[in-house]
Protein 1
Amino acid sequence: MSLRERWGSRSAFVMAAIGSAVGLGNVWRYPYVVYKSGGGAFLIPFLVALLTAGIPLMILEYWLGQRAQAGAPQSLKKTHKNFEWVGWWALMAALILTFYYAVVMSWCFNYLYYAWSLPEWSPNAKDFFFAKVLQVSSGPFDFGEFPYVAWPVVMGLAISWISVYLIICKGVARVGKVVLITVPLPVILLLILVIRGMTLDGSGEGLKFFLEPNFAALKDPTIWLSAYGQVFFSLSLGFGTLIAYASYTPKNSDITNNAFIVSLADCGISYMAGFAIFSTLGYLAFSQGLPVQDVVSKGPGLAFIVYPTALSLMPLGAILAVLFFIMLLTLGIDSLFSMVEGVIAGVHDKWGFSKGKLVGLYCIFAFMMGLLFASKAGLYWLDIIDHFVTEYTLLLVGLFQCVAVGWFSNISQARQEINKQSDFSLGIWWELCIKYIAPVILVAILGSSLYQELQKPYEGYPSQALAIGVAMTASAFLAGWLFASLKGRHHE
Ligand code: PHE
């Protein structure tokens, strides 16, 4: 058997894990989920989610991958033979996520192209985004006129997949180098935006909306669902990605400290993005005489409307805009290829196909599937599929991972192993979290949100469209079972 690939060093692994975690989830998804959930209402659920599920599960996933030295399906199988399907299910979720993640990258490529003319279109950033770039139609079943797709988005999508192919086909060592640039640059740029944003008139109101806790909203299960979903999405949990990345570390590498570094860095960057966006929203509210919650639409377009506005208010706005969209792209690309890597690692471990060919096929297939989201109804589909995949599927995968390790294998032994090789020791709280706390919370959230969902369809979309979202989630689950039941190269 050939030796498993390796990161160059401990810091290469930590950087790659941060590169995977920090992505569009922090700068694009986090602000709009916060905005949709009512700002401060999100704050407490998010922190609770980070502490009860985010960090403990990250430790768990690192341990799973490192111990088994294999991708998600084989790693889970090692805890108990009946859990391989959970790993495949996670990979299916990652596969679906890449279909639309690459489309959001494509929006960024478009914005990079238009960045030079920022002063011309930024006063109308909203129309620019919806009408010019996305060419959005009236609803999920309205694909507009022939050719039904927004060409600029299709082109950007092609560029995204070509870049992923070129970076990934050379293997993980190169990934370690790419992230050395893609991680620090964004922090500096975001800092500039935060400082500028906070000096704008009205920014205080925006920040108040972002940070003032709303205790009454804690009763709403959908906010909790969004918070857990966002933590999973942002920390790359439940997609099998971290398991694969950890499998490229030697068996005795530190786990606990690395998990804390990665999750806190990720969370910090989300907050920075929040400060940048909400201070600017405060300014927009102030200049238009509207309340903060009514300034822009609450969907996935938020970042693409607010950042350009913020940039246009700065000296040398166009140049900063170019840098900013390069930053979004660099942030997104390492997350995107980490998802692909996770899926490929799973397939490679089981059947041993050549990685280069697999990556090529993957990119072509994902490009084609992405065309749905690049269509004129694409924004609606993105919103719907994202809701079912990141909010329901991920939480379920997380739940089953906790059950697999907490109930079907020896979790105390797992903690001992982790403690033996980590910089600092995990207390018993970790076992309690994985075994009881996280599963109970996840079941409660999933149950009550599902109940609400049946009363009130998500975002008022037509039920046929939501049914397609559910069908896609279910097929990921079935595909998970199917892959697990196929014979691998080492017949078990
Ligand atoms: N965490 C990444 C982000 O925030 C997304 C991601 C999910 C990456 C799953 C890898 C695996 O953008």
Protein 2
Amino acid sequence: MSRLRIILGDQLSFEMSALVDLDPARDIVLMMEVMDENTYVSHHKQKIVLILSAMRHFAEQLRRRGVSVDYVPLAAPNNSGNLTTEIQRAVARHTPDGLVVTEPGEWRVQAMVEGWEAATGRPVEVRADSRFFASRARFAQWARGRGTWRMEHFYREMRREHAILMEGDKPAGGEWNFDSENRKRLPASILPPDRLRFAPDETTRGVMALVEQRFGDHFGELEEFGWPVTRADALQALASFIAVGLPRFGDYQDAMKAGAPFLFHALLAPALNLGLLSPREVCSAAEAAWRSGAAPLNAVEGFVRQILGWREYVRGVYWSLMPEYEERNVLQATRRLPAFYWTGDTPMRCLREAIGGTARYAYSHHIQRLMVTGNFALLAGIAPREIERWYLAVYADAIEWVEMPNTLGMAVFADGGQMASKPYAASGAYIDRMSDFCSGCAYDVKQKTGPKACPFNYLYWAFLIRQKDRLAKNPRLAMPYRTLSSWPSARQATILAEADDFLDRLE
Ligand code: DLZ
Ligand code: SF4
């Protein structure tokens, strides 16, 4: 029996479930570069280069292992631009007895997969994605019967289940979570290390030229492209992070510094999300660094929580709640995304830094995403789908399963607390505490109102005033609502008027 093994752009691992029992004598692997997948949002140019270059390298490695690969490049004559149609054409070319695919990373693509039997007249076997610690079913089992789904509870179960950072049945170091140690401001005396970047090879340069030619109008710059596009590069990136990033990853996890977008962050999400690295091996490498004394526990636990906890958890949320999840808008936010999200052209230095870095690197770290671009979208009442499509487009690591819950649930609280126990709303004081942005900003972070006042200040209070009916009962917001209730109504009116004025000018 011959089968067509389909490998999608984020499934670039020899361990993919769709490949495990591949018969090189009869089976063919199909990989497709298609316009639809490259244009359904205006993906950052680096994201497209990363995916297409990594796909091309992976196809080559499969071939070197003796596998027959039918690779459809974007420029292939008659490339229909659509996954389903390309699969129909491939079935006509190879007349396989059946199709095998690993479940995709997006609901939209899953809906396509469900149509492939009818489209091809062949049986389609859809296999679970074994790259993750928790299958979709494992998460659903955990979530069943729980009103709120707190990551921390899920994470502890995962730690126990996979025996990561455990000493017997106790967490290593006696605590599950060292987050309170992970909120330090970066002192001027600590310089961010040079981070390993990979010079584009010939294949990547070929894709860069293609992208400039075909997607020249997409967001972002290509000059600084340095992402790993092969497993060998990704393994080097992992080793380099463990050596130069991880030891201080915990302490400065939430810090921000102008001109230093990477700091001590892992920079591994693009490789992980495409399958070039496995979450198991990155957790093992981090744990080994702690056990050998090369990295402290607060850093290693913080990192493991991101991978074993957070990453698995958001995937579970996505697959448990889609497709209804993408429509959530509990705070009824309707504003269009301001144009400066695409240009970085704003006097607000924190946003300029985060967006400028995003254009240059297709990356910004989690606090820039959550507390700068996300916080602004939350406070300004940007429609959740507008900001969600932006995040999906602009980051090299953004595949929908991971990006959507992070945006809707964490950044803009559109799910009303399914994931987060409170909205991550903050005034300029938070950004000032965690960064060096405010000293060089056109606005004054200390002023609460007036033309020089930091917009995050009046937007924060205006947000709380406007959302009072929905949020005042949240115990985690008791303090700011107490402060607010002590203010005379004239002060509240001034804040609302200044916020309105600012928001009107955004459009
Ligand atoms: C994001 C993306 C892009 C830009 N291009 C392709 C492509 O040409 N071929 C492909 O198979 N996948 C691509 N992807 C990833 C898909 O949009 C989608 O995220 C995955 O198929 C989900 O598993
Ligand atoms: Fe951002 Fe306000 Fe600081 Fe300017 S003053 S950098 S707008 S937080």
